[in-house]
Amino acid sequence: MKLLILLGMLTLNVAGTYNDETIYYIATRTSSENYAGSNAISAEIVLVGTTGSVNLGVLDKDYFDEDDYVKGGTKLFTVPSAVDVGVVQCIVISVSEDDAWLFEWVSVTSSKDISQETFLYNINSTWMSSDTSEGEAELELCLEDQAVYFIHTKTSSRDHAGSDNLEARIRLIGEEGVVDLGILDNNELDDFERNATDQFLIVATVDIGKINCIQITVSRDDAWLFDDVIVSSDSHPRRLHLENSASTWLSSDLSEGSNSLQLCEEPLPTEPPTFPIFRYKLLIATQTATREHSESDNIRLNITIEGSKGSAVTGLLDNLDLDDFEKGARDVFEVRVTENVGKVRCITLAAGGDDAWEFLWIEVHSVDFNEQSYFYNTENDVMSSDTTEGTDTLKLCL
Predict the structure, then answer these.
(1) What is the pTM of this model?
(2) Which of 71, 204, 255, 343 could form a disulfide with 37 if both were Cys (CB 3.0 to 4.6 A apart)?
(3) Inter-residue contact 301 to 350 (CB < 8 Å)
(4) Is 143 helix (H, G, I), strand (E, B) or coil?
(5) Neighbouring residues of 42: CB distance < 8 A, sequence distance ≥ 6
(6) What is the CB-side half-sphere exposure of residue 200 using CA atoms within 13 A?
(7) Continuous H helices in 119-208
(8) Contact yes or no for 329/359 (Cβ under 8 A)
(9) Phi, psi (rounded to 5 degrees) for 273
(10) What is the 3-state secondary structure (H, E, C) of 82-114?
(11) CA pair distance 19, 16, nearest whole angstrom
(12) CA 61 – CA 74 distance, rounded (Å)
């Protein structure tokens, strides 16, 4: 069963050199804001790269008979083209329907260089719609107009060090300017808990070059104590490690601490990156037949991927704000791990929830090595942590 289904006839508007067929993997992330999703929008995408441009036509997955742009959802589109545009620099998205859509980012990976994934962010949160009273009918996003910043915070292990009502705003000072990145907040997560490490990815329109200092300002009175902050950017990946050596508490109530703290220090010597470097996309098909266990809203699934060089665990597979594993659904999960497992040979499913679930098949796509492996539930096994309903672990091998 071939899952990388080729889209039909594409109208190509090209400038560039024709090579062997290029496969483009386009991922879109719809915002989790209210009404951000759309079940009627028709989005066309143009790629502009270092060697040319190409119109890939309308992004559509009607062959799965599903909504492409669900609130908070990520969709992966596979589009073949006769044109290799080189390294993607810009995208142009145009829409032809008036059901407004708000996306967070679009990523592009080419089969010519699967190690290069280009992210273009909708920094200004521009709504897309053919009705100009609701949004823009066309939007161009370019790498030169964005800067991506990575921030790690480590909350102290001391009693009461965590905070759930802080509103911590961060400002970076660099060799080429200053940027206010706004409030540090991961939606749907409890940030700044005692002894916890939190990671933030923030996109801005200003690249300040080499980062020299940070300034953290808080506007609420639930005091917070952190041990250190690590910052870097996509243009300057060398990390700046700043320690709160004076153990300064932060709070808008000055009887509890300071409402602002600035730290400046030379970066640590170059260290191996802490971000996961091996990427997998998992496509999971839930049972379509009308059966007792054809869907689940509490399966709490994780998968161990085993290969010729080792194994890695995906962690909990959950698309926030989406109902995963519904009857007949095809769910896509993006996973980053630190282990290179080599050629995938087996997967082991583990169910942590007791709402039994039955699946049809699972595709494991190695983004970095452009390899797909398919695993089928030929025995119609049911997954559940309640072993009276099914099995809590299941291993499938090629």
Answers:
(1) 0.56
(2) 71
(3) yes
(4) helix
(5) 58, 60, 95, 96, 97
(6) 25
(7) none
(8) no
(9) -65, 145
(10) EECCCCEEEEEEEECCCCCECEEEEEEEECCEE
(11) 10
(12) 13
CA torsion sign for 36, 37, 38, 43 is positive
Interatomic CA distance for residues 171 and 145, integer angstroms: 19
The answer to whether the CB of 300 falls within 8 A of the CB of 351 is: yes
- How confident is the model at residue 233, as a pLDDT? 93
Report the alpha-carbon distance of residue 240 to residue 278 in Å, rounded. 24
**What confidence tier does 66 reach under pLDDT thresholds 50, 70, 90?**
low
Residue 286: its H or E element? strand 278-286
HSE-CB for 382 with a 13 A CA cutoff: 17
Dist. CA 1–CA 126, nearest whole Å? 38
Tell me the CA distances in angstroms from 379 to 26, 92, 360, 395, one per residue in order: 34, 46, 10, 12
pLDDT tens-digit profile of 334-347? 888 878 898 999 99
Convert the pLDDT of each residue in 254-267 to its tens digit: 889 999 999 997 64
Distance CA(385)–CA(392), nearest Å, equals: 5
Q: Which residues pair with 73 in a beta bridge?
A: none
47-83 burial code (b ≥16 CB/10 A, e <16): bbbeebbbbbbbbebeebeebbbbbbbbbbbbbebeb
C-alpha–C-alpha distance, residues 266 and 125, integer Å:
34
Q: CA nearest 315: which of 324, 302, 326? A: 302
Tokens of 48: 């502009």
* Other Cβ atoms closer than 10 A to 320: 12
Block residue for tokens 């082991």: 348
DSSP code string of 359-397 = EEEEEEEETTTTEEEEEE-TT--EE-SSTTTSBSEEEEE
Encoded tokens for 105? 């980012």
Nearest to 91 by CA among 134, 130, 59: 59
Q: Looking at this protein, which amino acid is placed at residue 6?
A: L
Burial of 208 (0-12, 13-18, 19+ CB in 10 A): buried
Tokens (6 digits) for 103:
């996306």
- Residue 77 and residue 311: Cα distance in Å, rounded? 27
Contact status, residue 277 vs residue 338, Cβ threshold 8 Å: yes
Q: Which two tokens stand for residue 193?
A: 């808990």
- 21-65 tens-digit pLDDT: 899 999 999 998 899 999 888 899 999 999 999 999 998 765 444
